[in-house]
């Protein structure tokens, strides 16, 4: 039997756990790639309206003027707006909604925002929001 100090034990334990988790994640990714749907690149942009803009006015802007601009983004495959439902007497939500923008690949999103229309979309949004956060995702869609 060989003995190792406690510090070395935990380093080796952590390394094994990381290796197992990585192998499992890689294995899961391989199964999904072989048997599941192909992931679709999507940007999700969470927006919180500026103070002084009503929820109704913000929704009208987002579903009208802003949608019309966003739909012109080069390379955009699909666009969706998800408005947060707020029950009466509920606390103010962190965001008022989430926009979903599908592109062929991540580079297409960044290229779209480098164009004049992309700059106009960003400017239009930033003029009406106090908070804007973005997540870049690989979407896997399953249909029951």
Spatial order of the strands in the main sheet? 2-3-1-4
What percent of residues are in strands?
15-25%
Sheet with most strands: 4 strands, antiparallel
Give the overall pLDDT as a whole number: 86
First-residue to last-residue Cα separation: 54 Å
Uncertain ranges: none
Helix content: 40-55%
Could you say which structural class the secondary elements and strand pairing correspond to? alpha+beta
Number of separate strands: 4
Radius of gyration from the CA trace?
A: 22 Å
> How many alpha or pi helices?
4
One letter per element, helices H and strands E, the order comes to HEHEEHHE
Please characterize this protein's 3D structure:
This protein is α+β, with helices and mostly antiparallel strands and 144 residues long. The protein has 4 helices and 4 strands. The chain has helices at residues 6-35, 55-70, 106-112, 116-126; strands at 40-49, 78-83, 97-102, 129-139. The longest helix has 30 residues, at 6-35. The chain is globular.
Helix and strand layout, with pairings?
Layout: H1 6-35, E1 40-49, H2 55-70, E2 78-83, E3 97-102, H3 106-112, H4 116-126, E4 129-139
Antiparallel strand pairs: 1-3, 1-4, 2-3
